[in-house]
Amino acid sequence: xxxxxxxxxxxxxxxxxxxxxxxxxxxxxxxxxxxxxxxxxxxxxxxxxxxxxxxxxxxxxxxxxxxxxxxxxxxxxxxxxxxxxxxxxxxxxxxxxxxxxxxxxxxxxxxxxxxxxxxxxxxxxxxxxxxxxxxxxxxxxxxxxxxxxxxxxxxxxxxxxxxxxxxxxxxxxxxxxxxxxxxxxxxxxxxxxxxxxxxxxxxxxxxxxxxxxxxxxxxxxxxxxxxxxxxxxxxxxxxxxxxxxxxxxxxxxxxxxxxxxxxxxxxxxxxxxxxxxxxxxxxxxxxxxxxxxxxxxxxxxxxxxxxxxxxxxxxxxxxxxxxxxxxxxxxxxxxxxxxxxxxxxxxxxxxxxxxxxxxxxxxxxxxxxxxxxxxxxxxxxxxxxxxxxxx
Length: 391
Prior knowledge:
Layout: E1 3-7, H1 17-31, E2 35-40, E3 55-58, H2 70-84, E4 90-93, H3 96-106, E5 111-115, H4 127-132, H5 137-162, E6 165-168, H6 171-180, E7 190-192, E8 215-220, H7 229-241, E9 246-251, H8 257-267, E10 273-277, H9 282-287, E11 291-293, E12 298-299, H10 303-310, E13 315-318, E14 326-327, E15 339-342, H11 347-359, H12 361-378, H13 381-390
Parallel strand pairs: 1-2, 1-4, 2-3, 4-5, 5-6, 6-7, 8-9, 8-11, 9-10, 11-13, 12-14, 13-15
């Protein structure tokens, strides 16, 4: 059995997709009998930081160092990890700061860097544009500090990729990241390892609704603009205006919550759209519904798609074939087999797909079977671990 160190500043399954990925990878490793130690720098360890049986080591943050000084942060992490990072068979890091700190201790190409959205990706607007939006001297100083942090992060993230073995959750994210950092793919150092899904937890319901019943739709996500839930709400409004019985359940929470609720009230469909917040028993919510929709405009992978598919739900998302959207749905959903891929961010196109599935219970049933089959055969955490060990 292997002794594995996983390094990431922030732990917590509910924080997002990559945090959930680390949680479930840890869970599967423990199930297989491996020893896992999770390193982090959080002041308070969240309740869902790690599954039972994992060791957690919290490192100190150098809070006296200015925000933008990643070099000092890496040095601080390295000095602490040097005392703790001995005797491990494998070292996996999620963040570039942790990866670079570990590389100095265990050597180049001995760290697996699990890539998600690059920090510096969020600073792509030009410095001139940023300055135009500043108001006052303090605002200018903050903008300059942010620009320095972005430049530093870009150089360091690129270095982490070059000096590590790299894992990406999807082909789309890999291509986007390598292009962003102006790097060529080196197959010996890069592997695509998608998440898995617990097919025993996420399973289809026992009965299937007939065409006479309400079309029950569900979306599960953080409520932020990029998740594009507003597109779903507009499509539901159109279904309702055509007298198609429909109900939409929105599972999740986030800063865009009130804006979405206001849109629902404005459209007069609050009786058929339900916001239920974050749910621990999300598998039960999938089982209560017929279709899953998440037309994200930005999605590194999208574990909720495979959770829904494992639950027997056909899925609808936006395709990235146009090159306009940064999503990996094309790698998960098969058009006209287990769901649909919208070509554009268009509520009318979504409406057409929903109406088609509403009119044919046979089609919904076929897509449901195909969705479950794909989840069972292509997405399991055991395969994720096998692939991670390969690199």
